[in-house]
User: What shape does this take?
Amino acid sequence: MGPLVSYDHISADTNLLLAFIIGIGFGFVLESSGFSSSRKLAGVFYGYDTVVLKVFFTAAITAMLGLLFFSLFGWIDLDMVYVNPTYLYSAIGGGVIMGIGFIMGGYCPGTSFCGASIGKIDAFVFIGGLFLGVLIFAEGYPLWEEFFKAKFLGDPKISSALGLSDGIFAFGVILVALGMFWVGEWAEKKFPQPEY
Amino acid sequence: MVKKEQTSKTAGYINPYLGGVLLGLVLLAAFFVSGRGLGASGAIKSTIVATVDAVAPAHTEKTKFYQEEAASHGEKPMKSWLVFEMMGVIVGGFLSGALAGRLKLKVEHSPKITSRRRLAFALAGGILFGFGSQLGRGCTSGSALTGMGVMSMGGFITMAAIFGTAFAMAYFFRKNWI
Assistant: This one.
């Protein structure tokens, strides 16, 4: 039963080796989907290329359903899978700052490493910015510590917060995603932009 | 004309829905093997913590952020899951780019703006994204994508805040992209 590391099927060091291999898969899929290009990433915000929307939501649904089925089959103990905690203010505040960084820089952290791995100089510069941003957060920590830790709600699942079963919620996410995919396909025809 | 554009647009890249399924399976593998999802910004934080500690150990000893990190993540910040995963990302991205013939040293930017402007915005965007990823306890990978996979409320909120803000601000930065 999984997670393999939680049930001692693999050692802590093997876990790190597998992290490296999982990372290879992560980087390979991101790059081959076009996430090494800031032009393609930013396209979703102007409609000319919605690859971000399609890949991101298809991936979220696949993983979500995979976890539900694995749990149903008794292959994974969901109680041992880390659920991100919810600190309401910093979840919103951090997201807003990241959103501005995204539209200005054209990358997010994972995709910038992908871009850099194939030689995008703008991605290297973005990564330099990431290190500076994290350093600023670390050095100025006392200034925003209170906001960072405010409104801690534990690690609630959004399905339970809405009073829905996990399965019904996942079904709802699929319907919403299908609607967005339709809009994405429409937008790409409606707002084309030349390649560069 | 339209046909030609479409060909070049899809050239070399895999179908985005297939890419999404594959990415979802990689994420599922991380859950199954390690009980945790994918991430990126955490590896940058580990590197910063390790670097500052190596350069100025006296400074980290009396600075709260590094002390909290040491308490929650141990004394060896580089021996972390995300650091190993991100080394894999660089290898995987390089392999994919090499196989598809996309390895090229260049500044990618719209012909309407200069390289210098593209790089200035990349730096500023990176600083904001780096800062925001610490405030939001994870970036698009660790907080938004992984958080959605496990149906975390915080993950959904951060995802909506990232994409919602980028959409809302897109108008002001349109010259960089269109």
In short: Chain B touches chain A through 127 residues (CB under 8 Å). The radius of gyration of chain B is 19 Å. The longest helix of chain B spans residues 115-135. The mean pLDDT of chain B is 94.
